[in-house]
Amino acid sequence: MGEEVKVFGFWASPYSHRVELALSLKGVPYEYIEEDILKNKSDLLLKYNPIHKKVLVFLHKEKPIVESIVILEYIEETWKANPILPQNLHDKAIDRFWIKFIDDKCLPAIRKATFSPENERQTAVEEAFWSRTSSGSSFIQANLP
């Protein structure tokens, strides 16, 4: 099945990393294709992700899937060995909460702190640190499960 699985990714993408990690944990061989997303997107990337025209693209049996969370669910349901999510529904819901929290709160904050111009970096870090959660409390005060 290894030659049937391809991952179009970018070396600095946490979304690519999470899919590669899931495939490794599951023992699924795959081909990794590095994309030059800054200067020269490949024709294959544009073909397989014509809507967003960006990484991450997961290809299984020549059928593309995009969005890392959707890809992770597909991997989990396709390859049953070595589950990456707990079987208990409550525990699975908690894991999904953390995935969403990381995607919605942590990754944007890291991106802002990393890629903001030098003179705006301190403000970006402070804003991310004191940002509000959906419950209205600051990130640092949030009631987390």
Write structural notes for this entry.
β3 and β4 (about 65) form a beta hairpin. Strands 2-1-3-4 form a 4-stranded mixed sheet, covered by helices on one side. It has 2 domains: about 1-80, Glutaredoxin, CATH 3.40.30; about 90-140, no CATH class. It has helices at about 15-25, 45-50, 70-80, 90-115, 120-130; strands spanning about 5-10, 30-35, 55-60, 65. The relative contact order is 0.11. It is built from 5 helices and 4 strands, in the order βαβαββααα. By secondary structure, the protein is of the alpha+beta class. α4 packs antiparallel against α5. Helix content is about 50%, strand content about 10%.
Summarize the structure.
One of its GO terms (biological process) is toxin catabolic process. The protein has 5 helices and 4 strands, in the order βαβαββααα.
Task: List how many beta strands DSSP finds.
Answer: 4
Number of domains: 2
Question: Which residues sit in consecutive blocks of at least 5 with pLDDT less than 50?
Answer: none
Give the full name of the CATH homologous superfamily of the largest domain.
Glutaredoxin
Q: What class would the helix/strand composition place it in?
A: alpha+beta
